[in-house]
Amino acid sequence: MSEETIQNVKDRLLASPKKSMRRLSQESGSSRSTCQHAAKKVKLRAYFISVVQKLKEPDQVKRVAYCQWFQTLLKENLGILYYTWFSDEAWFHMSGYVNSQNSRIWASENPVIYKKPLHSEKIGVWCGMFRRRIIGPIFFNAAITTAAYMEIFNTFFNQLDDEELSIGYFQQDGATSHTSHTSMPEIHSFFGNPIILKGLWPPRSPDLTLPDYFLWGYLKGTVYQNKPRTTDALKANITKEILAVTADVLARTFQNMAHRDQSCLDANGGHFQRVMMSHFLHNEVRLLQISLQYPH
User: Fold this and answer.
1) DSSP state for residue 212 in the 8-state scheme
2) pLDDT surpasses 60 at 8
3) Cα gap 240→225, rounded to integer Å
4) Is 84 helix (H, G, I), strand (E, B) or coil?
5) What is the pLDDT of residue 239?
6) What is the greatest pairwise CA distance in the chain?
7) Other beta carbons less than 10 A from residue 178's beta carbon
8) Residue 218: beta bridge partners?
């Protein structure tokens, strides 16, 4: 392999770091294997796109405090993990999203790429996740106001049984509509004090809550497979996939939460090690795939 070929491959990759090997081969006139060897010689690797939530300076302290509290709670009563509802909402765009498992970028160091919202037709989805089941999807079409959030919460609350109400915690993030002077008294009237919310729940921590690190990622990797062309078709796909999540899969993903909390503590409140995050996410999604392939 000539130095000219190596330099040609390097220049093309640095100029267009998302270029595929097929396109690079076509443009450079070299075979794919030659392009791969040339990239290796100049120490360029194909990295998976990693999406992380940017942390602000006080966030790590709050993440450590929450994880310590949660670990203490588990030591006192491990069963409390299985009686805790984790809730969140997400937007699903008709035009799809960046698939982090199939997108790579060429660079000398592993970069961090942030997803940007797509200005396309979209639907909002809210879910509450419990060890044994998921309540939802509850759909919405616009930014959630306090009144809209209370409608969602009451729809969720009306589906709880006495046992689910009497034991455990309800988690929500610190969004204004969640923690307003109108919404909080009503939420407290139903759950009392066992609520994980602003003040205890650390901001910008999607890696610590089940809907973010498990459910949304799985759904966004499955609901677009048949290329839905209408929001009704997308809603039907989302509903179908959520109903397909078994209690066994939920129980196992809840068990992994203790490991995630410990990983956060080991990182002093920072982002988990990339290898550890990938390992957990792979296991969680794989459990769901196995459950759907071999239902009990």
Assistant:
1) I
2) yes
3) 13
4) strand
5) 96
6) 74
7) 22
8) none
Amino acid 183: pLDDT: 92
What fold does the segment set 59-99+115-293 form as a domain? Nucleotidyltransferase; domain 5 (3.30.420)
Residue 16 CB contacts under 8 Å (≥ 6 apart), including other chains: none
| Of 201 and 99, more confident | 201
Measured CA to CA, the distance from residue 259 to residue 266 in angstroms comes to 10
- Inter-axis angle of helices 183-191 and 146-157, to 10 degrees? 10
Instruction: Judge whether 66 and 208 are in contact, CB under 8 Å.
Output: yes
* DSSP secondary structure string for all residues of 94-141: TT----TTT-EEEESS----------S-EEEEEEEE-SS-EEEEEEES
Q: Distance between CA atoms of 179 and 187, rounded to whole angstroms?
A: 9
Q: What is the mean pLDDT of the chain?
A: 81
On the question of a cis peptide bond just before residue 206, with omega within 30 degrees of 0, the verdict is no
The runs of H, that is alpha helices, within the chain are: 3-15, 21-28, 32-41, 59-76, 146-157, 162-166, 176-179, 183-191, 210, 216-220, 231-243, 247-266, 274-293
Q: Cβ of 26: how many Cβ atoms within 10 Å?
A: 11
> Per-residue pLDDT for 263 more than 50?
yes
Rounded Cα distance between 25 and 38, Å, is: 11
**In whole angstroms, what is the distance from residue 93 CA to residue 120 CA?**
6
Dig out the tokens for 79 from the structure.
Answer: 């069963």
Q: Quick one: tokens of 215?
A: 């459910």
β-partners of residue 90 are 125
- Closest among 177, 179, 170 to 198, alpha carbons compared: 179
Helix (H) or strand (E) holding 86: strand 84-93
Query: Distance between CA atoms of 277 and 147, rounded to whole angstroms?
Result: 36
H/E stretch holding 46 reads strand 45-48
User: What order of strands is seen across the sheet that includes strand 84-93?
Assistant: 134-140, 122-129, 84-93, 169-171, 195-196
- Of the given ranges (10-19, 133-142, 265-274), which has the lowest mean pLDDT? 265-274
